[in-house]
Amino acid sequence: MIVVSDTSPITNLAAVGQLDLLRQLYRTIVIPEAVYTEMVAAGKPVPGAIEVQTLCWIQVQSIDDVQRVAALQSSQNNIDLGEAEAIALALELKAELLLMDERRGRVLGQSCGLNVTGLLGILLQAKRKGLIPLVKPVVDELIEKANFRLDNQLYVTVLGSAGEAE
To answer: Are 101 and 119 in contact (CB under 8 A)?
Structure first.
């Protein structure tokens, strides 16, 4: 299974000590060079930066079609370089899944025919596979430690999907 990731799923999971969920769920994660650069050359410590440099199951790959990246960036969705490269790489590799949290990037990826999931979808899948016992404590930790933002309705919906409704 080919899975391409944008920055946020990696940094957020690393911030709460759950990065290995990606390996357990997908075996290998491919990131474009722009995502690698966002994490490694940020000028300040970024959760997951060491891991993307050292873990063999996170692979960095360059984009062949730089014109596609430019076209994606100039689309009305106003997405950043990491998101554009992640979408372009997922298309080039015919990836089964694109991991991305930002709404505009997700919408653009889906409009390009990609299967897209974000951090909350990853956590739901991890619970279904028995990799984590509960979604709620991980989401609460993401909000507290990683400044992960989600509105209350989505929070309630995700917990309901996890069978953890309050």
So the answer is: yes
Look at residue 166 and tell me whether its pLDDT is greater than 70.
Answer: no
31 touches 49 (CB < 8 A): no
pTM for the full predicted model: 0.94
In whole angstroms, what is the distance from residue 81 CA to residue 92 CA?
16
- To 10 degrees, what angle do helices 33-40 and 7-15 make? 40
Count of domains forming the chain: 2
CA–CA distance from 79 to each of 21, 76, 101, 104, 163 (Å)? 26, 8, 12, 7, 33
Using an 8 Å Cβ cutoff, are 88 and 112 in contact? no
Asked if residue 132 and residue 115 are part of one domain, the reply reads no
